[in-house]
Amino acid sequence: MEYFQGRSGETLELIRALVEHETPSGNPELASRLSRFLADLCQELGATVELIESPAWGPHLLARFSFGNSEGAKQILIIGHIDTVWQEGTLARKPFRIEDGKGYGPGIFDMKSSVAYAIQAIRAIRELGRGPRRPVSVLLTTDEERGSVTSRAIVEAEASRAVAALVLEPPLPGGRVKTQRKGVGRFEVFAYGRAAHAGVDPQSGVSAIEEMAYQILNLHQMTDYRRGTTVNVGVVKGGTLSNVVAAEARAVVDLRFVTMKDGEEAEEKIRSLQPVLKGARIEVSGGINRPPLERGPHIVALYEKARLLAAELGFDLPEGATGGWSDGCFTAAMGVPTLDGLGVDGAGAHAENEHIIIGDIPRRAALLVRLLETL
Predict the structure, then answer these.
(1) Which among 273, 290, 307 is the end of a domain?
(2) Which of 274, 290, 306 is the last residue before a domain boundary?
């Protein structure tokens, strides 16, 4: 840990450089600049670098590090992303700054500080002559904030060759790593009725909006907080004019679940919705698009290893669960031991107060080095 404490200024300058490369999701030109900047850094550290083109998002960076005695062994996969939710120009009103032991700037917590410390961890291994037993691949994607549209296949391909996946997403409050994430489903429910004049002949119509109101109640009744399953109707649209009995209505539904079994059961219920009103019709599209990160034995074993390594370094490493997803959901669903939330402690992801706790950087970097050495 002393190595990183002695180089805190160098690490902060790298964090500044990453933050000052604005990379809003969906801007391939800006993403490309940062991908190439990081590719140069990785090459300087001895990596074999591949920029995987993604025209709509910018190139994903895959850097492979070999440490001499690791040929033929399964790799350790480090996963991060360089895209952020902040639009170009945000930096002008929210510049990088350090204040009261905290670092501020767009994307600093989610997750440019973590990308920076991972690079510094590899640098430490090189400079100190520490030798991981396995090759290490660092995958930094450009579309995670939009659902890993093009990078999911890359994540899964690299995970298939990995003994473990270490995910640099921000931790939970208090620096807790994430050993459980909910899976996600997205559905669209369509209600079809029959239009009629609302003043002259309303009884001949069938209101799709009334039908949808019943279905919204049915959907929300599927929520089971005890099991961690939630169903939320977040968007509702329907009808044309106030004097017309609505012929169509549409609802967008978010499903979250702890286990794949729970998710599949909820999906079946959503797909089995039946109309309440005579003459109405229901259609459902969509489905589960993100598996959960289930807290199974392979997840717990990796967490316990990290917790013991952290204790050797002199700090606690608590764990927790979250309802949001990450690329770690993909690797965990493949049976790959996955440890998520290894990012620098802080708060305010996607929020105006986004920041990191600078004193946590040496701890996280030292832990990553020890994980790479011992896995």
Answers:
(1) 290
(2) 290
> Residue 114's beta-bridge partner residues?
none
The average pLDDT across 261-282 equals: 99
Structure tokens at 346: 């802080």
pTM given for the model: 0.92
Q: What would the pLDDT profile of 245-261 be if each residue is shown by its tens digit?
A: 999 999 999 999 999 99
- Same-domain pairing of 177 and 303: yes
Domain span including residue 227: 183-290
342 close to 364: Cβ distance less than 8 angstroms: yes
- The distance in angstroms from the start CA to the end CA of the chain is 19
**CA atoms in the 13 A half-sphere facing the CB of 127:** 11
Q: Could you tell me if 175 and 145 lie in one domain?
A: yes
C-alpha–C-alpha distance, residues 142 and 27, integer Å: 9
Q: What is the rounded CA–CA span in Å between residue 11 and residue 115?
A: 11
> 341 and 194, same structural domain?
no
Q: Could you give phi then psi for residue 253, rounded to 5 degrees?
A: -120, 135
Query: Minimal CA–CA distance to 358: which of 89, 180, 116?
Result: 116
Is the preceding peptide bond at 334 cis, omega within 30 degrees of 0?
A: no
The CA angle 233-334-368, to the nearest 5 degrees, is: 100
* Residue 193 and residue 165 share a domain: no
